[in-house]
């Protein structure tokens, strides 16, 4: 089978809700990383076959195929098309998978895969609630087929995260200790300049706004639970954020013809789904299957990025896989750095690639929990 290579990866800083990037139009957020990718990569943008972006809540400034709009807003060639996809939190990781599949199939040679989300401008779940003005409710209510299968029980990521904490016996204190470590790692990575090469500064912002230097277990202990009688608080959940990120994926032919230097080879791509009510457990079976298909063991992987939608998600994954916690989210995760939904998949992959290079490791694995109980897995090999 033909190979797919990662040539470069870049991201904006991750802005906090209402922070430095809140007023940036979503198309301009996306355009910024596209311009940075072209500038850094030194390739002819006219040779790009397609632009694939992940984005959720595609209304307002994110409507109208944001992948295409962002490319044009960057002043890049008119003839290059774009497409926007939604696999919930894993949308831009799926964009990488589609890019790799296009290259591996021989139907494309050069594809940009990325994502964008301005959650300050367009609040989370806007696309699910906008239908109320037309008399419609959420995707899960009033559907005869859905109700016949799952009943009228609540479909909520917050409920799912609580269910996971209960099933795997994860205490509030354990989650808060994990969250504190996420902030500590993110602050350390920032101070040591580990993110500097991957970030394209924007609007005067050159570092992520999310990591909290002054947080503590004492402060976390004083927060109110997100649900009555629950274990989770805002401190152990991902932050609402604004950002964009992008990768350049190339075929062997493009590498040879354009003189590109690959940084990594895409070793494995897959996606698997689990119970949609549990919703956030997908990374566990998805990781197992990815390792089985590649013949790799958990110990063969030098670095992991497991999206910190909630601390309970990662802690349950750690218990089930037996992965070394020191190799998981080494520079902090979404609890500290934020979770700009449509952009998170390629934000994680950008950070993972740079950290794998810094460590001199061989393999890195990324997985994310996604709405509907889904989970993508990508394994890359450093070159």
TrEMBL record:
Its domain of life? Answer: Bacteria
What positions does the domain Thiolase N-terminal occupy? 5-252
Per the record, a Pfam family?
Thiolase_N
Keyword Transferase carried by entry = yes
Where does the Thiolase C-terminal domain start and stop, copy by copy? 261-382
- What are the entry keywords? Acyltransferase, Transferase
**PROSITE patterns, per the entry:** THIOLASE_2
Annotated protein name in UniProt: Acetyl-CoA C-acetyltransferase
Could you tell me which species this protein originates from? Actinocorallia libanotica
């Amino acid at each position: 089978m033909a190979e797919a290579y990662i040539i470069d990866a870049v991201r904006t800083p991750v802005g906090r809700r209402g922070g430095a990037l809140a007023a940036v139009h979503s198309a301009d957020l996306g355009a910024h990383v596209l311009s940075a990718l072209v500038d850094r990569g030194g390739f002819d943008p006219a040779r790009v076959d397609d632009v694939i972006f992940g984005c959720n809540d595609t209304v307002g400034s994110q409507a109208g195929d944001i992948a295409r709009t962002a490319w044009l807003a960057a002043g890049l060639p008119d003839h290059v098309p774009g497409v926007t996809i939604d696999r919930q939190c894993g949308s831009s990781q799926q964009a990488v998978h589609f890019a790799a599949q296009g290259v591996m199939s021989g139907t494309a040679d050069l594809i940009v895969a990325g994502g964008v989300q301005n959650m300050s401008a367009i609040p989370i779940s806007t696309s699910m609630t906008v239908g109320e003005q037309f008399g419609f409710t959420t995707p899960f209510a009033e559907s005869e087929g859905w109700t016949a299968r799952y009943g009228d029980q609540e479909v909520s990521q917050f409920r799912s995260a609580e269910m996971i904490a209960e099933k795997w016996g994860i205490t509030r204190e354990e989650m808060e200790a994990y969250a504190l470590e996420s902030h500590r790692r993110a602050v350390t990575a920032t101070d040591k300049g580990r993110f500097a090469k991957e970030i394209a500064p924007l609007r005067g912002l050159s570092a992520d706004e999310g990591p909290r230097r002054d947080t503590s277990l004492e402060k976390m202990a004083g927060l109110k639970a997100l649900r009555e009688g629950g274990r989770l608080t805002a401190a152990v959940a991902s932050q609402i954020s604004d950002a964009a990120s992008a990768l350049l994926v190339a075929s062997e032919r493009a590498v040879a013809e354009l003189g590109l230097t690959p940084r990594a080879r895409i070793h494995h791509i897959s996606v698997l789904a689990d119970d949609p009510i549990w919703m956030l457990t997908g990374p566990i079976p998805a990781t197992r299957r990815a390792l089985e298909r590649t013949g790799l063991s958990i110990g063969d992987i030098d670095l992991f990025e497991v999206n910190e939608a909630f601390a309970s998600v990662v802690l349950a994954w750690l218990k089930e896989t037996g992965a070394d916690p020191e190799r998981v989210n080494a520079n902090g995760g979404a609890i500290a750095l934020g979770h700009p939904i449509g952009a998170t998949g390629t934000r994680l992959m950008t950070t993972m690639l740079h950290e794998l290079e810094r460590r001199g490791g061989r393999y890195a694995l990324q997985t994310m929990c996604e709405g509907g109980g889904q989970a993508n897995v990508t394994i890359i090999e450093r070159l």
